[in-house]
Specification:
Helix content is about 35%, strand content about 15%. It has helices at about 15, 30-35, 45-50, 55-65, 110-130, 150-165, 185-195, 240-245, 250-255, 255-265, 280-290, and strands at about 5-10, 40-45, 70-75, 85, 105, 135-140, 170-175, 195-200, 200, 220-225, 270-275. The relative contact order is 0.14. It holds the Pfam family DUF72.
Length: about 290
């Protein structure tokens, strides 16, 4: 189906670069991106979660990719309520006296500083948007954000700001209670009010942190599916332990009917693989592309 794009959640992950998937001819940042974009039509930028993007990088990404290729961009951690390393903030916005390795949440900065972070995030994405390369802005909220009036009000404000960037928005919750029977309808309605894609996720099931594989089309323009792997350490281990998994064909085939159903209800579906283990993500993306035809 032509409205489904498949890709991975990074093209620069050190494990991928060291796996041998890139040929020797794909040298440096430019060579690797051009090689990747010749094989997939979509990629997620996750480095923007750890530090604010730059206008220069956005311009280079647009110049190095063909028409039709799009970047989903993960929102900077501070903007979605995560604790953020002080050293990743612009120097003039850092709390006075705080060491670079300390961590801070939005409430500790004040409204003016948070507003400035939003402005810089939006400005840095402008070259991608102007070139038609900005797919969606992913607002991924932390596991500590549980359903309730205060949390929902925060999400509403975030989605309104992300929607003002002028492209599509996707929202992902890490606390499984957002998808529990008593909250699932309200969660979907929250996404619908902002024309945001409620991200469908694949993770190991049966764990306290397991998010159920709910695939609901909440925005007519876009649906998003993110595959995090099925590690038994999901939500408890290190980043590498939590995401290390190699999908089997059978595991991927389970999602084909769900993805096709989303494609019938949305103009476009983005399918992204976040299972980091050498070339595991690109291999899964290639396999899924084949399964979807």
């Amino acid at each position: 189906m032509g409205n489904i794009l498949v890709g991975t959640c990074s093209w620069t992950d050190p494990a991928l670069v060291g796996s041998g998937w890139y040929p020797p001819s794909a040298e440096g940042a430019e060579g690797r991106l051009r090689y990747y974009a010749g094989r997939f039509g979509l990629v997620e930028v996750d480095s923007t979660y750890y530090g604010l993007p730059s206008t220069r990088n956005s311009r280079l990404w647009a110049e190095r990719t063909p028409d039709g290729f799009v970047f989903d961009v993960k929102a900077f951690s501070l903007l979605t309520g995560h604790s953020t390393r002080v050293g990743s903030l612009p120097a003039e916005l850092r709390p006075a006296g705080a060491p670079a390795g300390a961590r801070v949440r939005p409430g500790a900065l004040g409204p003016a500083a948070v507003e400035e972070v939003w402005r810089r995030f939006a400005d840095a994405l402008e070259p991608l948007r102007a070139a038609g390369r900005l797919g969606a802005v992913l607002m991924q909220f932390p596991p500590s954000l549980r359903p309730g009036p205060e949390a929902e009000a925060f999400v509403e404000r975030c989605l309104a700001r992300a929607g003002a960037l002028g492209r599509h928005t996707a929202v992902e919750f890490r606390d499984p209670r957002w998808y529990a029977p008593e909250h699932s309808a309200d969660t979907a309605d929250l996404a619908k009010r902002h024309s945001a894609a409620l991200v469908a996720v694949d993770t190991a099931q049966g764990l306290s942190a397991s998010v159920p594989p709910v695939a609901a089309a909440t925005a007519p323009e876009l649906s998003v599916v993110r595959f995090h792997g099925r590690s038994p350490h999901w939500g408890t281990g290190s980043k590498e332990d939590s995401y290390r998994h190699r999908y089997t064909v059978e595991e991927l085939a389970e999602w084909v009917p769900r993805i096709r159903a989303l494609a019938e209800r949305s103009d476009r579906v983005h399918v992204l693989f976040n299972n980091c283990c050498g070339d595991a993500a690109v291999h899964a993306a290639e396999t899924m592309s084949g399964l979807l035809g």
